[in-house]
Task: inverse folding
């Protein structure tokens, strides 16, 4: 693979089956060099599986994973997939030293620098098994970052972190991306956080990528979206459509979503005239979460 | 691979369980040597009082005690190896560090082999420590050590080679599961099964040539007695029918267990008269110079009845084997089985998803 490729990673038609159960169905996406690439999807959508495949922990049933950089050799890829891989009976420093030996790195001052970077420099001999979830996450990130990898793969890295910790990790990842040019592939359930961090997104649903967008695309999609709640959603939908609005009903919940700006008073009066009640209306600007919900539908667990 | 080996050795050095077992390998042989010293120097006076006197043993008996103590690791190590290997590798898998190694860019082969080699090194280390401290125990207790001109080391090295096969087996079991408990239980079960199979196959170790020679010898002796007129032809026929080569080998079961004995290391314990206390309880404390099946024939009691010359039987084809030959056989079999278990273990590990 040429090192001059524009992409850092190219996933083409990757399938993964466990017996008859197909977790990934021809998943394809491209991670540009220098990007922070967010994978967005519900639980069980296939995010972790594709991250495991990219990291080399699992083999795809079919399809191709191409790297736009020389990924062979030690420490070219750093990854934190699901739970941090750390020895619970060792201290943070000992864990990092083991990771350094694993990578064939010289054990020098950078071990302590890395500990400081993730705010674990004052944990002393405390065993990692006694760390809080947030501390374990930070140690996992530090271990993934050991040896300055070209690409970082982080699956739910901010899980269990307190607000301050989330901000610190966000700043750290942005700094690594900006200053060292490390490409980061990240997944998170906290979409507001992901939207502050990632430059590109792939929306994953049912084992495939339904759409790839940039942060600009999300912002440009912009506008306002309103949600109507009514005991007669089908009647209300008819009223809204008669008013010429871009309205859609969500199956199952009966929530009606309307895109764009409109005169709410007109809508309420018209509905009242036709005997359709409106229980509640909420309005918000489009963000990553809204974008995702609009794309895949429903209020599913992201 | 070298990085990973360095990694494993550093991790093993920082493992408390490893040092506890090492301490056991240091203390236990010295304790056992001291125990034997006390047993063999124990005197009971006429008034029923106990006292410890001078060690009163022949050189041959001391030689046997040396072999008994120095080779005891063979019977004791497997359970500890099973426990240590499965817990050690299991920890790597349950804590997820095996994933770190893979993500770092190490091939699965490197990950597997570094652990396999590290576990083999641990086995050799424990055995060597056990032997060294065994010699110390023998020395301070006045048993020598009597090493048969160094020949005993060739047998001990063979025993270590046989144990290395178990090390490869336990490593493969540990890598086959993500769970830590299953490999521990499986490995301990394997140890027990292997021990049972060893006892069974050991009873059918006699080569066909030895039993054929015995049958021939027996028939000649019976014919001689018929010629002398001390045995009737009917009795001679009856004796011959009872003393066939197959009967000497142990009956039909020989056809099942002897191939197992030949193909595996299962007969090692019986071939090498490994410490099982039998020698002591039967009062026969002999460091055997060769494997001699004449003893099995003598045990039938019929040899005395028909007056077979024991020395004549011993000189016949296949009745005895030197330990130099046996050492070579067991080392070769160990190399083959080590490769088989390592290969199968790696294939299983390679096919497994790493979660």
Result:
């Amino acid at each position: 693979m040429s090192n001059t490729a524009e992409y850092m990673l190219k996933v083409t038609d990757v399938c993964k089956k466990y017996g008859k159960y197909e977790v990934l169905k021809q998943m394809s996406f491209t991670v540009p060099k220098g990007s922070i690439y967010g994978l967005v999807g519900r639980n069980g959508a296939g995010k972790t599986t594709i991250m495991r495949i990219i990291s080399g922990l699992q083999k795809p049933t079919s399809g191709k994973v191409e790297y736009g950089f020389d990924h062979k050799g030690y420490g070219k890829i750093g990854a934190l997939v699901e739970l941090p891989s750390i020895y619970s009976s060792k201290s943070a420093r000992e864990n990092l030293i083991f990771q350094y030996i694993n990578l064939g790195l010289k054990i020098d001052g950078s071990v302590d620098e890395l500990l400081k970077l993730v705010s674990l420099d004052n944990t002393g001999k405390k065993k990692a098994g006694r760390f809080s979830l947030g501390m374990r996450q930070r140690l996992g990130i530090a271990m993934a970052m050991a040896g300055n990898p070209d690409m970082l793969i982080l699956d739910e890295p901010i899980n269990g972190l307190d607000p301050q910790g989330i901000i610190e990790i966000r700043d750290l990842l942005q700094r690594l991306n900006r200053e060292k040019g490390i490409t980061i592939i990240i997944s998170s359930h906290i979409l507001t956080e992901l939207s502050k961090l990632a430059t590109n997104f792939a929306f994953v649903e049912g084992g495939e990528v339904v759409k790839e967008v940039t942060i600009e695309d999300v912002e440009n999609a912009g506008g306002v979206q309103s949600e109507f709640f009514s005991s007669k959603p089908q009647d209300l939908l008819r009223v809204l459509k008669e008013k010429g609005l871009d309205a859609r009903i969500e199956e199952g919940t009966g929530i009606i979503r309307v895109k764009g700006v409109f005169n709410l008073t007109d809508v309420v009066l018209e509905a009242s005239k036709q005997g359709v009640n409106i229980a509640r209306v909420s309005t918000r600007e489009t963000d990553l979460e809204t974008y995702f919900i609009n794309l895949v539908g429903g209020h599913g667990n992201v | 691979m070298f990085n990973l080996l360095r990694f494993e050795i550093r991790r093993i050095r920082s493992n408390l369980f490893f040092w506890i077992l090492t301490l056991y390998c240091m203390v236990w042989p010295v304790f056992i040597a001291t125990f034997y010293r006390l047993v063999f120097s124990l005197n009971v006076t006429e008034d029923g009082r106990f006292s410890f006197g001078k060690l009163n043993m022949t050189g041959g008996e001391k030689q046997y005690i040396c072999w008994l103590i120095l080779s005891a690791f063979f019977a004791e190590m497997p359970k500890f190896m099973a426990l240590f290997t499965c817990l050690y590798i299991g920890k790597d898998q349950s804590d997820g560090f095996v994933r770190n190694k893979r993500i770092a860019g190490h091939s699965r082969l490197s990950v597997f082999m570094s652990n396999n080699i590290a576990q083999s090194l641990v086995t050799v280390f424990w055995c060597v420590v056990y032997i060294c401290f065994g010699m110390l125990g023998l020395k301070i207790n006045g048993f020598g050590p009597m090493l048969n001109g160094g020949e005993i080391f060739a047998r001990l090295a063979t025993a270590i080679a046989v144990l290395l096969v178990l090390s490869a087996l336990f490593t493969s079991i540990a890598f086959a599961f993500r769970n830590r408990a299953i490999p521990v239980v499986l490995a301990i079960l394997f140890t027990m099964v292997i021990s049972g199979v060893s006892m069974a196959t050991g009873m059918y170790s006699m080569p066909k040539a030895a039993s054929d020679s015995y049958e021939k010898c027996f028939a000649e002796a019976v014919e001689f007695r018929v010629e002398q007129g001390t045995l009737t032809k009917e009795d001679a026929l009856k004796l011959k029918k009872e003393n066939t080569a197959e009967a000497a080998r142990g009956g039909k079961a020989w056809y099942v267990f002897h191939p197992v004995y030949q193909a595996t290391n299962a007969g090692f314990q019986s071939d090498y008269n490994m410490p099982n206390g039998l020698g002591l309880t039967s009062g026969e404390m002999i460091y055997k110079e060769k494997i001699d099946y004449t003893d099995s024939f003598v045990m039938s009691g019929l040899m005395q009845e028909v007056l077979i010359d024991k020395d004549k039987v011993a000189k016949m084809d296949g009745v005895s084997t030197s330990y130099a030959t046996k050492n070579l056989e067991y080392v070769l079999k160990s190399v083959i089985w080590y490769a088989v278990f390592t290969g199968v273990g790696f294939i299983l590990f390679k096919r497994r998803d790493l979660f």
Q: What stands out?
A: Chain B touches chain A through 23 residues (CB under 8 Å). Residues 208-280+289-326 of chain B form one domain.
